[in-house]
Amino acid sequence: MVKSCCVYNCTNNKAKKPELSFYLIPSQATEPERRVLWLKAINRGTQEARGKLWQPKSDYNYVCSAHFISGKKSNEKDHPDYVPSNFPHGGQSDSARKRKLDRFDRAKSNKKRAAPVARKNLFKECIEPIRPPSPHLEDLEPEVLIPATQTGLKTPLKESERELLYSEMDALRQERNSATDKVKELEMLLLNSNLSVAGVQENDEKCKMLTGITWIVFSQLFVFLSSFLSVKAATKVSLPLRDQLFITLVRLRHNVSFNLLATIRGIKRTTAIDYFWKWIDLLHAKVGFLIKFQDRDRIFQTIPPVFKTKFPRLTCIVDCFEIFIDAPKNLKARAHCWSNYKNHCTIKVFISCTPLGHVNYISKVYGGRASDVQIVRESDFMSNKYHMPGDQVLADRGFTLQDELAAACGATLLIPAFTKGKRQLSAAEVQTSRQISSVRIHIERVIGLLKNRYTILKGPLPIQSVKRISDEYNKKELASCDKIVRVCAVLINLGESIVYNDMK
After folding, report:
1. Could you give the CA distance from residue 361 to residue 315 in angstroms, rounded to a whole number?
2. Angle between helices 204-211 and 241-254 (to 10 degrees)
3. Which helix (H) or strand (E) holds 12?
4. What digits encode the pLDDT tens for the residues 183-221?
5. Model's pTM, two decimal places?
6. Confidence class of residue 46 from pLDDT cuts 50, 70 and 90?
7. 503 or 454: whose pLDDT is higher?
8. DSSP alpha helix (H) spans, 68-138
9. Which of 138, 284, 318, 447 has the fewest CB atoms nearer than 10 Å to its CB?
10. Angle subtended at Cα 237 by Cα 231 and Cα 242, rounded to the nearest 5 degrees
């Protein structure tokens, strides 16, 4: 979703003016007083005229940096940009706002210069000359008298010595400030280099580069998933829950080894493995519902015009793709996984997407030896709960299931024409095949997006990731690779559609 400014008559947004920054209106939970100041300053709508304060309906309302005098917001309460003030209805000219900012900068610099002066006065009081002894000093007892050499006070400093001392104090103070700034820079560098959530917070570009999803999607996904975790699970961990989800998505996105993840985060390799599979299981169980067939009316309303002219009742495009895996030691298992097409041990998945590129069906994972027709027959894809009579399904030549699909649910399977038994195709067959191929290519693009965004699907997957020993011991219906493939498909559904971008 493109960030846009909520100020009345302001048309700035992130797509139109990427150089601007966009700041969220302060939250009612964390900064209630500042939120009221912002809403009064924005003065949006006509409710203020009736004495009511405008309350945004959404938590994601932004104000662009054009409404701040210095071009960015400040968290200092006395700063003019603590609250946005650069509005057409503000009643102040640009020069008045500029003078206000200049006064703040001068006051801040004067305050910095006043600090060492106060210390000089205090030091001056401490080194004042010693008062002359009391005339009644000889009346005191001998043990009460303290020699002047034991008091530690000497004769007053000369003016040159005092100035030298002050300059040394200023130099030490500057050295301390520079060291503090350096420590802050190193802390920020450490946060950015150890794969933590703090390094990508509020940064959509960096978050998408590391996890495949934007920061807003990541934060909402974490809030949703964390509601299913117990308080005990959230407290007795060596890594924060957000960072656990973060490194899980990083592994899916970049296929990073567990050894590298454990080294960067300073945890054990077995701990990193436990975190990964815990969140994969949770993602598969709680957000797997995002892969589902949409209503026919919804599909027909959103189908791109280019598709609608060629195939008006098109509901899905199907194909299979393969993922490289390590060769199993068991010869029978290796035979089931061997793919003559890829000349490698693979696992094969049947996938379906809507005309807009939304993944709406993922089959169980099969060995690379299984044919496309076998996978479709053994899955429930041809069931009438997914298709209605008259629906059009596009596929490649290998899916020779027109009669079976029509008998099962009344849908029409459209595949390019064969030249078998013919010298050449007729003009009508050539035209139809071209139309099918021009639309069917989008399932190839969706598969390419799935593999390029989450490179763990490029493989080779280790055997432990194909099927864990615990899955086999507990006799689970789904293998570990089934969960990985389904979770990756869910995550690309949370992003933008490549088909939709091209059809706009």
Report:
1. 12
2. 60
3. none
4. 887 777 666 666 788 888 888 888 999 999 999 999 999
5. 0.60
6. low
7. 454
8. 94-126
9. 138
10. 80
The first and second tokens of residue 140, run together, are: 């005191």
CA–CA separation, 284 vs 481, rounded Å?
A: 11
Q: Taking each helix axis from N to C terminus, what angle separates 258-265 and 241-254, rounded to the nearest 10 degrees?
A: 140
- For the chain, the distance separating the N- and C-terminal CA atoms, rounded to the nearest angstrom, is 15
Nearest to 387 by CA among 362, 408, 364: 408
CA distances from 67 to 166, 352, 380 (A): 43, 47, 56
Angle at 79 between CA 73 and CA 83, to 5 degrees: 50
Q: How far apart are CA 311 and CA 414, in angstroms?
A: 10
Query: Phi, psi (5° rounding) for residue 168?
Result: -65, -40
Q: Which of 395, 390, 353 is nearest to 376 (CA)?
A: 395
Query: Using 50, 70 and 90 to split pLDDT, how confident is the model at 235?
Result: low
- For residue 278, CA distances in Å to 4, 190, 197, 270, 364 come to 37, 26, 18, 12, 20
Q: How far is CA 503 from CA 302, 355, 498, 499, in A?
A: 11, 11, 9, 6
Asked whether 391 and 368 are in contact (CB, 8 A), the reply is no
Q: Between residues 119 and 311, which one has the greater pLDDT?
A: 311
For 183, the 3-state DSSP assignment is helix
Task: Please name the residues in contact with 133: beta carbons below 8 A apart, sequence gap of 6 or more.
Answer: none
Helix, strand, or coil (residue 4): strand
Q: How many CB atoms lie within 10 A of CB 12?
A: 18
d(CA 360, CA 339): 26
pLDDT, position 104? 84
The tokens of 127 are what?
């080194």
The mean pLDDT of the chain is 82
The neighbour count for residue 150, using CB atoms within 10 Å, is 7
In this predicted structure, the answer to whether residue 362 has a pLDDT above a threshold of 90 is yes
Tens digits of residue pLDDT in 377-430:
999 898 888 888 889 999 988 888 888 889 888 899 988 877 766 777 778 778
pLDDT of residue 363: 92
324 closest CA partner among 125, 502, 458: 458
pLDDT exceeds 70 at position 67: yes
Three-state DSSP class for residue 359: strand
